[in-house]
Structure formats: C-alpha cells, structure tokens
Amino acid sequence: MSDRRAQWQWLVALSPLIAVAAALAAGAVFIAAIGEKPLEIYALLFREAFGTGYGLGQTLFRATPLLFTGLAVALAFRAGLFNVGVEGQLYVGGFAAALAGAYLPLPGPLLGVAAVLAAGLAGAAWGAIPGALKARFGAHEVINTIMLNFIAFSLVSWAGRAVFLPATVHTRDVGLGAQLPRLDTFVPALRGAPVNVSLLLGLVLALVVALLLFRTRLGYELRAVGQNASAAEYGGVSIGHAQMLAMALSGALAGLGGSNFVLGYKHYFELGFSGGAGFIGIAVALLGRNHPSGVIVASLFFGALAYGGLVVNQRVPRELVEVLMALVILFAICTRPLLERAARRWA
Amino acid sequence: MDVLLFAAAAVRISVPYALAAMGASLSERGGVVCIALEGLMLNGALAYTLGAHATQNPWIGVLCALLAGLATAWLHAEATVRFRADQITTGLGINLLAAGLTRFVLVRVFHSSSNSPRVPGLPEWRIPGVADLPGVGELLSSPLVLITLALVVLVHGLLFRTVFGLRLRSIGERPEAAATLGISVARYRFAGVLLCGLMAGLAGAYLSSEQHSFTDGMTGGRGYIALAAMIVGKWNPVGAAAACLLFGAAEALQIKLQGSAFPSELLQALPYVITMLALAGFIGRAVAPRAVGTPYDPES
After folding, report:
1. Contact criterion met (CB < 8 Å) for B104 and A157
2. Would you call B160 exposed, middle or buried from its count of C-beta atoms within 10 A (0-12, 13-18, 19+)?
C-alpha cells in the first residue's frame, strides 16, 4: 500500500460513524411517521441506557453476549472466514454450561470453572466442524455455519427431552458454585441490574484476542491467511490448519458467551435463550471493524439500543430497535466500499 | 390413499420452498448470493396480509406480496450491485430488517405483537376432472400450487433455453468476459435479484394465504431451507424444486411423528445435514457459479 493511499485510510474508518448516523436519521423518519418526536425519543433512549446506574447495568447486561459474539465474528473475519454460525455456537455453549453446572460432581468454584470451560469447548467443537469441512473439502463456511445453526436448535431440542424439568423448556438450576456473581454485589450503584461477572470475562477475552491477533506468531499467520491465503501458504503457513483453528477459536468465544445468560442470570438453559445475539454479533464486528476495541464500543452501542428500546416501548414500538440495528448493518456495508473507492481515487 | 394424502401434504409444504429456491437460483446464477430469501418471504407474507385485509381481495394481496418482494429485492440489488457491498452481510441485514419491520407494522397496524386478524385466502381453481381426483384433487385446485408447477418449467426454460438465461449464467461465471461482449453486468444482476424477489414474495403470499393470517416470524427459517434446497439442487431450478420436495416430505413425516417417542427433532435437522453432505461432495458435488459472491468492479 502506498503512503498516499494510507493517508486516506482514515476515511474508511469513518464508515461506522456514518452508518450509525444514517441509521438514526432513517429511524427518525419512522418515529416521526407514527407521530412522535425523534430527538425526544432518542434522548430518552440513551438517557435511560446510560444515565442511571440501573440503566447502565441493564445496558451492560445486554452488551455482554454481543461482546462475545462480536469477538467471535471478528476473529474469524481476520482469518478470512465468515462465521454466520455464531448463534448456534452460542446456543450449544449455553446448553453445555447448564449441563456441566447442574450435573458435574465438583466442589465450589471448580464447578464454575468447569461450566465455563464446557461452554467454550462446546462452542469450539461446533465451530470446528465447518472449519474442518472448509479445510478438507473446500466447502463454503457460510452455508455450513447457517446449516449448523439449525442443526444445533434441533439437536438441543431433542437432547432437552431428557434433561428439561417436567412441563418446562429449561434445565434445572446449575449448582451454587457455577453461578457467576452479579456485579451489583461489588458495585452498589448497579443495584438490581443483571450484569454479571460474564462481562469481565468478555473484556479479558477482548484483550486476549487483541494480543493473539496482533502480538503473536499464530495471530500473524491467521491474518496472513485472511489477507492473502496463497501468499501465506507460500510463506509456510498451512491454510487448512489456520482455518480450522480460527473457526474453533471463534466458536469457543461464541460458546463462552452462553455464560452470561446461563451462569450469570437465569442459572439454567432455556430454549431460544440466544435470541439472535449471534446475528447481532455480525453487526457488532462490522461496526467495530473487526478490532477487539471496536467490538467493545459497538457491543455497548447495541446493548444500549436493546435496553433503550424497552424503555421507549410505551411511545414507540420497541421493534424500532431491530429496524435500527438492521439499518446500521446495511449502511455500514454500503458505505465501506464507497469510501474505499474514494480513498483509492484521491490517493 | 394414505400415500396420496402424504404426498399431497409434502407438496403443499414444499411449494413456498420451491418458489423461493427457484428465485434464488436466478439470483445466484447471475452471481448474487441470496441469503436474503427469509426477509423477502417475510415481507411478502406481511404484504399479502395487509393487501387482503384492506381490500378483502386475496389477489390484491398477491399483488402486494409481489411488490413487497420486488421492493426488498431492489434494496438488495442496489446494495450488492450498485454499491458492491458484501452480498452475505447485506442479505443478513435484510433478513434482520424484515424481521423488525414486519413486527413494527404488526404492532402499529394490527395492534398485536403476535398475529394479524383473519384474512381471506386464495379461492380454489376447480379444474373439471382434476378437482375430483382422490387424494390430490384438493391440492391441484390450489392456484399457487398450479402456478408453482408451471413456474418450475418456465424458470428452467428461462435459464437454459433463452438468450437472457445464457447471458445471466455467463455473468455468474465470468462477468468480465460477458462485459467485453457488451452485456451489462449490473443490469442482468439486477434482473436476477428482482426476479428472485418476485418469486420469494409469492412464496410469502402462499404462506399467509394458506394460514389466512400473518404471524410474527412466520417464515421460521424457510428461506434458509429454500437456500439449502437450491444448493442441493445444484443451482438448477428443477433440481432445486426436487430438493424442496424431498425436504417437504421430511417435514411432513416429522409433523406426522410429532409427539411420538420417535425423535422428530432429528428429522427436522435432516435437510441441513443433507445440504452439508452435498457441499462436502458426498452426494454429488454441489459447485456454485464461479463468480457468485464477488461484486463486479470494472476498474479492477
């Protein structure tokens, strides 16, 4: 890349901000169309989401799974793979955490560690399947990960027959040792909000992913495969190995996200608990430009939208938030190539 | 007799899959990935309900569904062809948009977060002699079933027996070569995506017409099954329709076995497993059009 072209790269970095602004502007049209004042609604939404300790805690709680799934998508993206299966990996991770936490005969904190590990391992296994199929048969990971989402839903429903409590669609509670403490036990200001230790785990993992990607040999190899696979292979990197590893790690990150709901909130697995967090994770990674620090900010933004939507529901249907999230994706994905071309032209 | 009834049920289930899958084959043969089927169908289903509710005329509903599919597909084409945005992400974004938008409209128009009031479905087309056939008579009196059967032939002909089809396929394989012959890559890709939108919109109309209402998220992943069927059918309209019939049979069987000790959930996963096997090359290798997923950039 020439120096002159690098000079204009900041323009491309603006695309997330433009996308958010454009989505909010388009959302304002919806709000106005149903006879409400857009600025008032947005002010209310963000004030409730960030303005009080309880609201902030709610926002952070909703941002937590998005942090995990956003990191998962971003890591795979860096290796040139589009992991659309984060939803399914999160799902099996949550299920595995619930089973390990409820049935393993381990004392105290060991049970917690085992439950978290189970979530990561289940997610990794589910992510490794499309990775292996890609490496071995060249089968496109996008289709396979979509298929595996549905297979995960079916498989867990079937397995649930054996472990769900009678007349419910959830497992029994995990043991006390596996229940992650809420943050309001340490920070009184967050009182009542369900944000829990899972958030801290996510933040630590963001740091780990950043170090892995940009400070280790393995990370360099993953990024090399993502940028130019044949060049990386010429440089001695095994493409198949890198792809499998990237998908397994991505799946592990997604699976660990199950800890927020299962170990930190309800303390059991419930059918459909993932509620689309995997798909929003794609938006989070896109907006965060596949960088862990960007993912943190983007997950916070989407978490605020998710909670704020509930708050304004009295005046504007909370479904507006889903529309906003979708618009952010569409605007971000359209402005980036546009800005890239502009940067190329002006360089 | 029982076999005929089962076959009729399988066909009935596979009709929306087949419509969407054949539409997707047109989009993808032209080089545009169609993950957006789910959203196209959902918007079509809601539009049918709105149209049929407002006018009490189901055919106006069908018209609305076609327009909704067209409009949504136009959005997809604008983003992927004109702006050269990533096709998969755009498709996922459109699916999310449709999910949110239909819910938003459901709440605003019908004041319910779960379902619309009852709307009229399409009337039967009773063909003398056919309508009284045992088992399948009722099936072959459904206008959209008949239209779908006709479309299987028409879409296949369009793709493999016309100049339009030849050009569309060449653009899905080597757009740069087609462009040197003076064929507008953008125009053909738009056409492929828009036709896909029409067919997926019709698929949505079928769903709400059969059910006489719109319910939140009523497509329930059918768009992804249709996409899978298109892959198993090797990007061929007839192959896709055949795969849809297979998937429809699996679903009919699953519905029959629901509540029994048989693990019907596993049967539910069958179409997805078959698709993965096809992609990996275990049941005849499914190879995508060469240029599918790559935006065409004349400058590069």
Report:
1. no
2. middle
Residue of B232, B234, B259 whose CA lies nearest to B246: B232
CATH among 1.10.3470, 1.10.443, 1.20.1530, 3.30.750 for A37-315: 1.10.3470
Query: A162-175, pLDDT tens digit by residue?
Result: 999 999 999 999 99
- What ipTM was estimated for this complex? 0.92
- For domain B2-280, give the CATH number: 1.10.3470
The answer to whether residues A202 and A210 touch, using CB atoms and an 8 Å cutoff, is no
Q: What residue segments make up the domains of chain A, in order of their start?
A: 37-315
- Phi then psi for residue A196, to 5 deg, are -140, -175
Q: Where are the alpha helices (DSSP H) in chain B?
A: 2-29, 37-55, 58-77, 87-110, 143-161, 163-173, 175-180, 185-211, 222-232, 237-257, 264-268, 270-280
- Counts for chain A of helices (H) and strands (E), in that order: 16, 0
Which phi-psi region, left, alpha or beta, contains residue B111 (left: φ > 0; alpha: ψ -120 to 50)?
Answer: left
Tell me the one-letter amino acid at A332. A
* Confidence at residue A1, expressed as pLDDT on a 0 to 100 scale: 45
- pLDDT of B200-236, one tens digit each? 999 999 999 999 999 999 999 999 999 999 999 999 9
CA Rg, chain A, in Å?
A: 21
Q: Is A313 on the interface with B (CB under 8 A)?
A: no
Among A126, A133, A144, A154, most B C-beta atoms within 10 A, so best to mutate, is A154
Q: Please choose, from the candidates B183, B229, B209, the residue with its C-alpha nearest in 3D space to the C-alpha of residue B47.
A: B209
Sign of CA dihedral A312, A314, A315, A319: positive
Question: Which neighbouring-strand residues pair with B215?
Answer: B115
d(CA B141, CA B146): 7
- Burial class of residue B277 in the structure, from the number of CB atoms within 10 Å of its CB (0-12 exposed, 13-18 middle, 19+ buried): middle
Q: Output the pLDDT for position B260.
A: 77
Residues of chain A with Cβ-Cβ distance to B35 below 8 Å are 142, 146
